[in-house]
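Amino acid chain:
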Amino acid sequence: MKICLLCEGSYPYVVGGVSSWVQQLVKLFPEHEFFIYAIATDESMKGDFKYELTENISFVQEVFLNDAYQEQPAQVQAAAGGRLEPWQAEAFTKLVMGEVEHWDSIFDFFLRQQWPVAQFLMSKDFYAITQDIYYEHHQMAVYSEFLWTMRSMYLTLFHILNHPPEQADIYHAVSTGYAGIAAALGKRKWGGKMLLTEHGIYTREREEEIIKADWVPADFKQLWIHYFKNLSKAAYMKSDRILALFDMNNALQIELGADPVKCDYIANGINVANFLDLPQKEDAQVLNVGAVIRVSPIKDIKTMLYAFDLVKQQMPQARFYLMGPNDEAPEYYQECLELLEELGTKDVVFTGRVQVRDYIGKMDVLVLSSLSEAQPLALMEAMAAGKPCVSTNVGSVRELLEGSTVDTLGRCGLLAPIMDYEKIASHIILLLENPELANQFGEVGKMRIEKYYSEHKFINAYRELYQLLGEGDRQWLE
């Protein structure tokens, strides 16, 4: 079976999170051929893979969004002739209005001919479409700003539509957004089935980013939020099956337009055997606090640093290890170093990219301070290693650390509100001062992973799903 995995802003360019999940999935199914449809921002990332591709990945189809800006000036001039047919103009109008039932007409338009995107966005047709919508819904905004906002939105989308994925039996998108649209486009062109595994909820993540963004004028924030919501609705509509990592996110998908009949969840899976016989710390007097993270704003490293500063003041023998890449957001990393210097906190180590198994056994407590998560592998690996955890209450973390109605094993960690560094620090101190409680939490965490989040369950669920979708009838678009 040939499976196309579609990734946006993650594998194989970024380490951790979704990328680790993709690498795990591919390794676990050597009987299938995979290829990666990788969406990234800039061509400077071309071939800069952070993972060694497994033998069953046949190739990587790279698509760079900024390439849409590289068309020659002659192509950007308004089209002379070649006007849209009335049905095509209606389809694009409905697209901009967010009515998802017209997506097949949009797909067919790009599949039958490659349009220079910038030329299309400068055409009289696109101008007429945006003008009608402006006068009907957005007259309070300045028209020229509205027009350029619309062009900015659809430039990247139409660039994706000009680059359909290669032929596959299953198009497996690991998010909605551009990856979800590309998967739906591949399904439309080649037939096959579409599977969507959403880790975080793409629409909510983009909404949070846009609300905080300085680059989006206040008048157009809702326009951008609506745009990304429409992309997700289209991906939900075109998917044959829709997965989340836990049931709460299933409910959010349904709230955002997913068909409940298509929805289910498959939890992440951990192989506990990989976390046995780990290297241990040599000095029992030293107290090690660790975080398996990539240094980026969404992980809120600054809150960790503030928390550890409080821990260090009360427990001078404590050390803090931040394990993971620090090159994803260089400016933010520099801000973290400056904060550390300002605080004057000692014994804080940014390890960079390392083998987590070489470090995690030496930790007394593992910490996560993220602003947003789905089902964090970092915590699950800590639990598999028998380590107590402290985390912000995001995504499915409460269920991981405290259990659920069917999981009554008890606690294996402590929760804190987002950005509450004082609470995070007090939880860390509590566990460092009470090794019996820490050991109890560690044992519960290991049992929870073995019982509810095993790699065996993960493999069986996806093997059954791939087989079910792969054996379905395929209809081909001639």
Observations:
- The chain has two domains: 2-265, 273-453.
- The mean pLDDT is 92.
- The chain has 18 helices and 13 strands.
